[in-house]
Amino acid sequence: MEGKNLKILIVGLGVIGGSYAMALKAAGYNEVYGIDIDLETLEKAKALGIIKEGYSKGKDIIKDMDLIVISLYPRLVKDFILENREYFKAGSLITDVAGVKELFVQEILDILPEDVDFIFGHPMAGREKKGIDYASKEVFKDANYLITLTEKNKKENIELLEKIIYDLGFKNIKYVSPSYHDKMIGFTSQLPHAIAVALINSDEEGRDTGKFIGDSYRDLTRIANINEDLWSELFFENKENLLEAINNFLNELNKIKSALLNDDEKLLKELFIKSSRRREKL
Amino acid sequence: MEGKNLKILIVGLGVIGGSYAMALKAAGYNEVYGIDIDLETLEKAKALGIIKEGYSKGKDIIKDMDLIVISLYPRLVKDFILENREYFKAGSLITDVAGVKELFVQEILDILPEDVDFIFGHPMAGREKKGIDYASKEVFKDANYLITLTEKNKKENIELLEKIIYDLGFKNIKYVSPSYHDKMIGFTSQLPHAIAVALINSDEEGRDTGKFIGDSYRDLTRIANINEDLWSELFFENKENLLEAINNFLNELNKIKSALLNDDEKLLKELFIKSSRRREKL
């Protein structure tokens, strides 16, 4: 199972799954198939030439697949595996794109067939819109990819997935434990989404805010346009880490508030100097 | 005083003043002069061809100028006018770029010579870096411009400034009172800066955060690289409005926190739907 003839199945051709199919095509992989419950999505994907064939059920196609990329909401991944557990090809590899890992990994390992390898992955790329119409291989360019290994993962499969990830355009692959993944993602991804939502929701109703904005407000609220089903799942699956990140953030924002209330210009400048130094290092 | 031969003086050729000079040149204005305390900056501006001549003092040049754009930190604007009050040309126009207005406007009006018109302005565009090296006419393209009028402003001067603002590339001009300006800017500009600073400062020391970030964290922290002198001035000059905006934001973030703590998926989704609708409308 090597080279560009590897048989790859994308499950869920939404904005992320669709982007995988596009990036795989651009990288020269020519045996890419798709599963989606939406027939129009399958037709679009076929018309774009990014899948060879589309299916609404796994039964007919899964048995031939070397690699399956499950690009579904986290809660649906387990269902997909349970429904199709008798069809997976022995020795095949599965990976996912879920933005939470700790609870998720254990749930999947509990039901995974013995002869299938599952390497957990999280592409740190996405768009605020959903659906194949917003898919784009560009979002993967130079982005970060997180991989969570388990004891059962085979060396050759890890190498295969690494190669594909770089072929897709990603720049960095970082190996992390499920718990560290969730802790960091609570801070770098979920907290910014919570902040963006709170920022735009804190506007007073009926103001002509659009006339008063520059890039800063635009940048900070872009992700306030959020898929409520996916992100409520992600927030609740990582509740403890996210709450900790929110509390740390509140603590810092309260320092700024105190500096203002106490006319403490020295403290305010120190906070600005610290943030500038950290942002430049990033 | 009309047309592209209007004699224009930019006071302070930093990132904003430098951008004005560049955009004026691109728009065909060919009588643009500059004042800066930094000789190297004046040399650079002259070498770029964006000013005809540069000066370190106002005395020699101000008396010939039709329009003066003061692009200094707010606290320095008053000093500049006081130092040069005997040199301004009768009937000339001054404007500024200060990001706060209420206290500022009154201070300036108290010391302004009788025969000079001052129209207060705020280009909603900027960059996180300072200095002429980061100046760019592109930042003005399609941006918003806020103007704060006083009773004394002459109609022909308002029309002149409007024309120049559109020539610079701005898309919208909005006329606002000083108090509404400061209330809105506290929300759309200062609050996002406070949030960005608090977000990056809330990271735990020593983590390899760079490997865990996607566009969301990158976007939300861009403005955490902040000019501490300018922004502490802006924050303190608009303290009450900023504190109100911070409190409204905290209130919304606490709703998200409550939804998490109470496992209230319905509330969390409602907040996401509200923020998505608002962002799409923007």
TrEMBL record, chains A, B:
Family the UniProt entry places it in: Belongs to the prephenate/arogenate dehydrogenase family.
Record's keyword annotation contains Oxidoreductase: yes
Pfam families assigned to the protein according to its UniProt record, in alphabetical order: PDH_C, PDH_N
Keywords: Oxidoreductase
Superkingdom of source: Bacteria
Involved pathway(s): Amino-acid biosynthesis
Domain Prephenate/arogenate dehydrogenase: 6-282
Species, as recorded: Clostridium isatidis
Name this protein carries in UniProt: Prephenate dehydrogenase
Listed GO biological process terms: tyrosine biosynthetic process
Keyword Oxidoreductase carried by entry: yes
Molecular functions per Gene Ontology: NAD+ binding; prephenate dehydrogenase (NAD+) activity; prephenate dehydrogenase (NADP+) activity
